[in-house]
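The record is given unchanged here:
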Amino acid sequence: MIDEDLIILGLETSCDETAASVVRRKSQGKGEIISNIVRTQRAEHAKFGGVVPEIAARAHTEAIDKIIQTALSEANIDFKDLSGVAVTAGPGLIGGLLVGMMTAKAIALVHQIPFIAVNHLCAHALTVGLTNNLAPPYMLLLVSGGHTQLQWVKDIDDYTRLGSTIDDALGEAFDKTAKLLGLGFPGGPEVEKWAEKGDPHRFDLPRPLKGKPEANFSFSGLKTALRQQAEKLTPLNNKDISDLCASFQYALIDNLMERIEKACPKVKQLAPANSKPNFVVAGGVAANKPLREALSDFADQHEMTLTIPPANLCTDNAAMIAWAGAEYLSRGISHPLDYTAKSRWPLDQKAPALIGGGKAGVKA
């Protein structure tokens, strides 16, 4: 372990946010965000109802230099003060990843500092170390636009998959539901907003995989059932939309809790003896308030300690990339400048592929 403070510049360009952050990892392991700049591309993609890879890559190219300078300026440092530069190397949209990777490599080469290639999912998993000073081991629920999975995090680079989606990711299901109902993008916040005024019991929607022993997830059937209900009611009024959103969100969260419960016996085996397991939730969908409330109740019922980072650090950001880079560098780990970007990069590389896909997606 490196017994000194580390100052890391982190870059994130895996999807539709261009982000740069400066994070300090103190010698005793605590983290501090010195600056955290995020430039979203929502306006560029909104009319398409989803992220267009070519538009995203171009926007990253146009914005990244200014974003980096802003992050350094707010942190009141220069490149010479950095201990290293960390960047998302995958998974994600390959065009965007290449923009970040080439920029980070150039900085590392010119300023002769270590280059750290970070798995975006790993960065989400480790964010609680930055925000809550919480180190592994813990159970992780990663819920985002491209990923829905349960992992046992034994160490910063040691993961065991407990369960994963076999079709759509949770955030993807929200986005597609919003698009079906003519709501805005991204869909998660829109569905949540409309659901606040709706009746969650008006429509009896299915709970895919309910009762199955594995802690896997499926959301395509739920999405199809919602579409069928909407087609019966066409043209939809505002009450119909609110009730559909509320019923969808209620069924989805109820289904999610039942699926997570299937992982609990395995978690008890993996957790340190006579300990109260930590349960960490990360990814953009973790910003959903009803989901947070349900997860809190779940943790209480199963005698787990729940930790969720602040909402702004659940969505894509560069602070989590910088922190993951700092954790690696503190252990003397860095990467060569010929390291390549990976559009797919599972956390548990030993786990077999799931029938149905188990998406490795792009939006986390």
Q: What stands out?
A: The beta strands are 6-12, 17-25, 31-40, 84-90, 115-119, 138-143, 148-155, 158-164, 278-282, 305-307.
